[in-house]
Amino acid sequence: MEVAIFGKSFGKIFYDNCRQLFDYLLQQNTKVYIYKPFYDFLLREVTIAPPVSGFFEHPRELPPVDMLFSIGGDGTFLEAVTYVQNTGVPIVGINSGRLGFLADISPDELPDALREMEEGL
After folding, report:
1. Partner of 18 at 20 to 30 A CA spacing, among 10, 38, 113, 120?
2. DSSP readout, 69-109?
3. Does the annotation mark 23 as catalytic?
């Protein structure tokens, strides 16, 4: 599976969840492409350097992927849409804060959501 990850920044409350997501993707041998400014944030603030297959900064740089993870809030989700518009690529919205309507997987729901993805539910 090949995925893209798009995000901005988030608070310390989401650091462990973010690590959990990247650990899951690594365990699944997922090929990951990441929005370069978000990767820089992860290096600088979260102090993680997830293994990635490549970077993108503009929609035209995004390689073909099976899905895109949007990490942040609804605004981040809406911006992520511009990267996959008209491609049919599904977006998984992971809310790194308190409440989201578009980014509707909350930090508490992330472990179950990852398990359901693995099971194909």
Report:
1. 120
2. EEEESHHHHHHHHHHHTTTT--EEEEESSS--SSS-B-GGG
3. no
Q: Count of residues for the chain?
A: 121
Considering the entire predicted model, what is its pTM? 0.89
Instruction: Check 23, 66, 74, 112 and give the catalytic one.
Output: 74
C-beta pairs of 74-81 under 8 Å, 24+ apart in sequence? 74/100, 74/101, 74/102, 74/103, 76/6, 76/7, 76/8, 76/103, 77/102, 77/103, 78/102, 79/6, 80/6
Three-state DSSP class for residue 76: helix
**How far is residue 95's CA from residue 28's CA, in Å, rounded to a whole number?**
22
pLDDT along the chain (121 residues), means of 10: 93 89 91 97 94 95 94 91 92 79 74 74 43
For residues 110 and 86, the answer to whether their CB atoms sit within 8 Å is no
- Cα 40 versus chain centre, distance: 14
